[in-house]
Design brief:
homodimer, 495 residues, alpha/beta, Rossmann fold, 2 domains
Chain lengths: 495, 495
């Protein structure tokens, strides 16, 4: 969920200086229009990693917009008055009225996350808090409110560097974090529970925007753009927004760098190392699948990737040392008539492995947010809701002990071209290349966006994506096998 | 939530026999149209009290409709195959395809309720199960499914009688309930957790229908009518239903008897007993409010009722023996400009009592589902969603220790007429009667429906309604005071 906010997004000074004046003017205009219409309030929630720039973002908003129309609310210790009433009373009374903007700092999300990280509440209670929040936000949106939820993110390394800088800076050294962020464990817990919270509370009418906080210019410009687009779209609506999907529910990165572009595609493996490692990993997998502890688990691997990225080859290497009775491969084709008469996920439900079993999906339920999205086979509403449906589905799997490993096998455009041409030249490979493949290739950038969004929204603490740099087939195959083995071992190691 | 399914609804044989042929024909027609269109599946969930006729209802549906297009699914013990997969797999694989109807007996609701009643799960885990279910049903409805959820109900007395009959009947004595329903505690727990589950999972696109099960004819006709109306409405839609609100989300009773009509309005109190009891209850209230245990609670009383039912008089008697600093009265009038710029509930949030305090609302947030609904001041979507928003709000109150007592003060039409006329005759009372009052009176039956729906949907295990028979003012005032005192004492008695 946070992967693409850890790749070091940045904006250079020139680009920034060129973009800011127009953005500020447009934001101001939208803000006045908001006051003029006075049809709905705007609520901005700021959350995320310590040091990722929450405070700076508030300052910026006050600088860029008219501060008389923005109320910044911070919620630290509860006052006596607040303690004497229901927990949400503190938020109820500080909601911005129609036409105004409220920035909520240390809001209901901070409260539940801190509670969980400090073990004042358990998982079930966290889920209860999440449920209350979802109902509260739905009500606010039904009443017309426009809610923006920002998660400002830093990788652990970035955070440590940032806290160090702040500490060394006499202007900032007074800032002592409420959570002991110096500890690795605090960061890890915060991120883990943060993923759970974001996964459960992202709604098309109130989505989370994860923004990398390391580079100030990138952070400011991104937050500003998202606010502007969302605000303008809501102002254009004839009615109050009322649970309308946000204009830009999935934000393309403004520095045009996504997770997939940031992979190191030069990684290779020479033939000898390959042979050696392949055999070792294959043997390890065969052993793990026969392990007694496998009875409590199932293994489910999803293979997605660019056309010609080598999914089939990788799957054959995975099964290389396995007894055919040990595994099951599900090639996903067009739905049958029977499948079309059922909910979208039904055709995958029916192939879920029983405990003790191993199933590989050659393409999967992610088709909805990849090919169906790009080719327009389903409506925007359909693929937008698919993210949370998929997350719910995968949670059911992992709760039941399924070890879920998801691969995106990535190749670059040049490699794909070479493989396509090679396929056309080789008689026995010609069946593998069709008109569709060439057409998909023309939509390369649309697919890149779809993949980035998919990973951002469905790489969760329970079912992360593994991106496979697949320009080199040998490197890719070994990485696939090793990832499977590590996932199984990690699952076996948990009590 | 179950109050109006405990008043002894019944349909006589003649009415039944006259109604059934047309209903059956229409149901069959709708069923064939459903198959013809094959655009969406219908899922019927049957839950409720043991002995309330779940099995009989299934038989009936098979009899009335074409059984080839209905699949009845029962879920008892999980099979080995099911145990090896996620808990919902058993439901996934038995969903009816588009064009068909599935009747789910012993479904996800039975599972969570039995788990909670038998203390295999706690409250937080029950809420988790509820959350999973809400997401699952939303997904099904987004995919087009039309879901009917029936809760067949019996009062405890009715249930005991029914189980006795079954036991004595050689044809039925083999039926042994999985839960030990003979025990009062089982019934009480089942109803209590049932209320919680229904409150949390009723959605306009998948509402619960609570149907009294004691009289077979009433039960059959009600279930049949609800199915027919819902099905016909969905078939008329140009698109798949997709989370459309049900046609008849709040069902008027087919025997034209609601909760309010079933009150015994002849109850009175003579002057002497009144004086004596009034003073005693007033003193008791004053004492309870000064009790040390009051520090952990607040008392909030909501007064709603027919015009001229005596709300003001009752409130004055409540405060009769109290120090004015001890209580606060909130008369609810038209919202101010500031209040109009906020969510609907905001103007009530601001008057929530702090711990230790006592606040009375003379009219309340229920205005939305009463006057606003009847007079059309808000859209149907708005008042429909208000039920769950109100339930959420009241849950926050009671969770925070607020003792919430809600009064509906009911008088009959004749009494109201006399009081209106009396007001017009008496100079100092004339200000109390306006054109509005006479106009509201013309909408008497619409208000009766609204009140019945309100009580059905917001009388919950945490915040039940108390209906006050208020034709006799003395009787009413003492009952109000006594109810407040009993609620406080019950709260103090809980650890």
């Amino acid at each position: 969920m946070f992967e693409s906010a850890e790749i070091g997004h940045q904006i250079d000074k020139e680009t920034y200086d060129a973009a800011v004046p127009a953005l500020r003017e447009a934001l101001l205009e939208a803000q006045f229009e908001l006051r003029q219409q006075a049809r709905f309030p705007v609520i901005i929630l700021l959350n995320g990693i310590e040091g990722a720039g929450k405070g700076e973002t508030v300052k910026l908003l006050n600088e860029w917009m008219d501060p008389r129309l923005i109320q910044v609310e911070t919620f630290d210790q509860q006052t006596d008055e607040e303690l004497a009433r229901p927990p949400f009373w503190r938020y109820w009374r500080r909601l911005p009225p129609k036409g105004r903007t409220g920035v909520f700092f240390g809001n209901w999300y901070s409260q539940m996350l801190q509670g969980r990280v400090h073990q004042r509440i358990d998982d079930a209670q966290l889920d209860q808090a999440i449920g209350t929040t979802v109902r509260f936000e739905r009500m606010l949106c039904d009443e017309g409110a426009l809610i923006f939820k920002f998660w400002l993110h830093l990788s652990k390394r970035q955070m440590k560097a940032r806290l160090k800088t702040l500490q060394d800076d006499p202007l900032h050294s007074w800032r002592i974090s409420p959570l002991d962020w110096q500890q690795s464990k605090t960061y890890d817990d915060f991120v883990r529970y943060g993923e759970r919270v974001l996964r459960r509370t992202s709604r098309d009418y109130a989505p989370w925007y994860v923004v990398e906080g390391g580079d100030e210019r990138y952070r400011c410009l991104t937050v500003g753009r998202i606010l502007l687009e969302g605000l303008q779209a809501a102002l254009r609506l004839e009615e109050r927004p009322r649970r309308q999907p946000h204009a830009a529910p999935v934000a393309a990165s403004i520095d045009n760098r996504g997770l997939v572009d940031s992979l190191d595609m030069t990684q290779t493996l020479d033939k000898d190392s390959y042979q050696q490692q392949l055999v070792a990993e294959q043997a390890r997998l065969a052993r793990l699948l026969r392990d007694k502890r496998m009875r409590r688990h199932a293994l489910l691997a999803v293979f997605e990737g660019n056309d010609a990225a080598g999914k089939g080859g990788a799957i054959r290497r995975v099964t290389g040392a396995l007894d055919p009775r040990q595994y099951h491969i599900v090639p996903v084709a067009a739905p049958t008539e029977e499948e079309q008469a059922q909910p979208y996920l039904w055709r995958f439900w029916r192939h879920i492995p029983a405990r003790g079993r191993f199933t590989m999906f050659d393409r999967s339920w992610y088709g909805r947010v990849l090919v169906e999205r790009v080719e327009g086979y389903c409506s925007q509403a359909d693929w937008l809701r698919a993210y949370s449906e998929i997350n719910d589905f995968e949670e059911q799997l992992t709760d039941a002990g399924v070890v879920l490993v998801k691969f995106w096998m990535a190749i670059d455009q040049q490699t794909q071209l070479e493989r396509f041409q090679e396929r056309e030249k080789t008689a026995f490979k010609r069946f593998k290349i069709t008109e569709d493949d060439w057409r998909n290739r023309d939509k390369w950038t649309q697919y890149v966006d779809a993949v980035n969004d998919m990973v951002d929204r469905t790489s969760t603490e329970i079912a992360p994506w593994t991106l496979i740099e697949a320009n080199d087939k040998r490197f890719a195959r070994v990485k696939v096998l090793r990832t499977l083995n590590e996932a199984l071992e990690a699952a076996f190691a948990r009590k």
